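Structure tokens please, single chain.
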Amino acid sequence: MKHTSTKLNVLGTEITILKIQQEDFISLTDMLQAKDGDFFISDWLRNRNTIEYLGIWEQINNPDFNYGEFAIIKSQAGLNNYKISAKEWVEKTNAIGLFAKAGRYGGTYAHKDIAFEFGMWISAEFKLYLIKEFQRLKELESDQFDWDIRRNLSKINYRIHTDAIKQKLIPEKLSSQKASMIYANEADVLNMALFGQTANQWREENPDKKGNIRDYANASQLVCLANLETLNAHFIQNGVPQRERIQLLNATAISQMEILLKDHSLNKLESPKD
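Here you go.
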């Protein structure tokens, strides 16, 4: 199974989360470290309430769930001599909400819905903090996703922009060093139009910051920048002189930023570096 992993810290306990086919599975093995005393996941599984909850979850989410085996397990759950492991539960019922993993990130994992219930077995406090930290992680992932989309939009338009420069402003046989100077010069046309300063001026004023002026742009500025890049490429293709272009681009930037700053949905999106 292909997956990506991340970590949560819940009341001092580090917990692994695996994302598999867009679903989040949380390590019960890691969570167990927060419970006082010697307990095992099989102790939780022998509880009748646990089995009933797992059965309901599988009925809702798993069309291949083995109801016959589930009925047998449910009838035995809670008896003093009854015991079942996560591996046995999966093998007997074709369950998909739990699985055991060997090797790196090894242990028993549960779908987040089930893991939250397991958290209650640790303690009510642990469950609440687990949910809180999980929600915080999802918010961070959402913010990063929005940021990546906006940055990719800017990169696509930047390619259109640089291709126009290459076609119209860079003569054939021009050295790569001189060509890069022209690219930088044209990038600063946009920087001046939108930010009112060149890349070098920004670096001189912000010696402690990494990256460049565009890495610190907010959502409205990135949208405007993407539009300016496309517009500048159009001006270049039509032979508009640079001095005239920068004036037109600056007027466009002012107009668009006034509109974009009134857009409350964009105002909520902040750059991760802000």
